Protein: DUF1062 domain-containing protein
Amino acid sequence: MRKVVWTINFLSTPTITRHCKNCNRDMEFSCSERFRINAQGKYLDVWLIYNCKKCKTSWNSTIFSRVHTNKMDQELLALFQNNDPMLARQYGSDRTILNQNGVTLRRVEYEILGERFELDEPVILEIQSDFPLKIKLFNLLKAKLDLSTSELKQFLKEGAIQGAAVNCFKKKVHESTTIIFNQTEELIDS
Structure:
């Protein structure tokens, strides 16, 4: 059985929805991938900066608040100071932090890298992502395999596609997901 790896490549940080003071309504905000750091005495505040897509008004998503300078990892602080894009994407995709800031993750632009395969061949497919996606595994498979909803449902019904859990196809994509296509008897016996 051949192993195929697909990697989710994020083209941008997810956009969010929040109230824009200038537009006076809920608007879509995009991540600037830049941090703001404020030092008050021995304490630091760190924010990730977002901008309204319509009027460009900025809003700061709190990452750290009132952290003592001795408690802040110096390497992490250097990444904040240098506006590290991977760190910005990490915090910009962190649902916990965004929920704490009272915003909703809206959408993310991504591409699926990895080879296609014939749907009748036995394959162990591993899907890897740096961050959890807010997209169902079912929809991701449809897009990459270029299948209609009914075609993919038929493959599932026939048992040609199997996931780690019964309902995994209704769940969102996590950092690593494994799916088996056309499981052979040798794999079952081993």
Q: What stands out?
A: The chain has two domains: 15-107, 116-189. The chain has a mean pLDDT of 85.
